[in-house]
Each structure stands twice: as C-alpha cells, then as structure tokens.
Fold this protein.
Amino acid sequence: MEFFGIDIGGSGIKGAPVDVQKGELTAERYRIPTPEPSVPEAVAEVVAQVVQNFKWQGPIGCTFPAVVKNGVAYSAANVDASWIGTNGEELIASKTGGQVIMLNDADAAGIAEMEFGAGQGRAGVVIVLTFGTGIGSAIFVDGRLVPNTEFGHMEVRRKDAEHRAAARFRTEEALTWKKWAKRVNEFLGRMEVLFSPDLFIIGGGVSRKHEEFFKFLKTRAEIVPAKMLNDAGIIGAAMAAAQRFKL
Ligand code: BGC
C-alpha cells in the first residue's frame, strides 16, 4: 500500500510516494530548496508543490526538524522561530487538502531504520542518531519509540552537543575526521552513561562516509551505520501516515 512521505529539512524539502510494506519509494523523490526564511506559510506552500508534483491526493506523513506533539511544533533549533506553537498538520492539510501527520525527523528516520534498515529485528535499547545540520535522536525499547527525545541538545563541555558535534561543524571548522570523531565520541559516551544502549545506529549524510570516522569511535554498545541513507525520513513519515490513517 502507498502513502506519501515528506521530509522537511534545513536546506531541502523532499517527498515521494512510498510502498510502506516494502519500505521503498515507488517514484523518484522530488526536492525543492527550503524557503528562506523558513516560516510556516512558505514551507507549507513548498510541501504542497512537492505533493502536487505527484498529483497525490491521499494521506501524507511529514517530518519536521523539531519537537512535534499532536501536530504542533514546540521547538525550532534550525528553522524559523515562528514555527513554535504552529500546528503543522493543520497548516499543511489546508494547503494540500489531504490528511497529514507530522513528526520529528529523527523519529521518522528511526522508524524506517528499525523496520527496514540497520535496526531490523533488534530488541533492547537502540539509539538512532542523525548527524547533519543538527543532531537528531530517536530511542527504541524493544522496537517501540519514545518520541521527541532531543539528545542533540544535551550539554557537553558547556555547549549544546549539536553545536560541537553536528556534521556541519566538521566542514565549517575544517576539522579532520579524527578531531570531529573525538567530539562525537564524547557525546556517545554521555549517551552510554545515561542509557546503556545495546546498539547505536548512526545516520544522516555522514553515515555514507562511516569508514572515515567509525574507526575513531569507542563505545561499549555495538555501533553501525544507518542503511536507509537519504530516504529514511520520507519512508518513516509515510509509515507514520500508514499507522495513523490506515484505510
Ligand atoms: C532539533 C531536533 C532535530 C535535529 C535534526 C535538532 O536541532 O532540535 O528536533 O531532530 O535537529 O534535524
């Protein structure tokens, strides 16, 4: 069965129809750059353009890079602050005409990884972390998600963890892989003290380059790269829509 997935990111808004039983896109995804400023109206307009590109009319799952509860955004670390308090589900539904579920981007990516990717069949405590513009997190206990964890905002060396270890700082500060991995390692160490996970799944754009930095990471838990790469958010969003709007 097909549902539509949208992934709203800091730089692009991407979407595609998804076969939620297979965990695969059924058409090539379509991307439009995120408007600047990334205010709710403008973002919702772009989401509607992506959806219209496929002439899609059914339910839509949509990720958002912030805390989202019952469709309302409660934070806005890497998007326009006017999102705080906005009901994204209602806003996007008003532009697209379809039913909408909105969820945190890392939660969506985690849902896809657990079902079809690196977390498939894994019980115990699994932490999925996405390294990109920020650090996203999702934690699963025996396959069940605890939504809206914001581990990237934990303080490490008196800074938000994501302000030191997000992937973008490796490029912005021209850090070597080793130097950047040291920051990631510190963050993972804190996660281990607090949660004693059985498995870390490392996602985000850098997961494609895991061979460059996994060798510098030392964790007690097993650590593996994400498998779904770029499509995890879209697929997880569509899966969330399938769950909420089962026909
Ligand atoms: C946000 C999270 C989001 C992560 C990745 C963080 O800045 O607070 O909600 O999951 O970035 O986009």
The chain is about 35% helix and 25% strand. The pocket of beta-D-glucopyranose is lined by residues 65-67, 75, 77-78, 104-106, 130, 134, 136, 150, 152-153, 162 (CB under 6 Å). The chain has two domains: 2-107+231-244, 121-227.
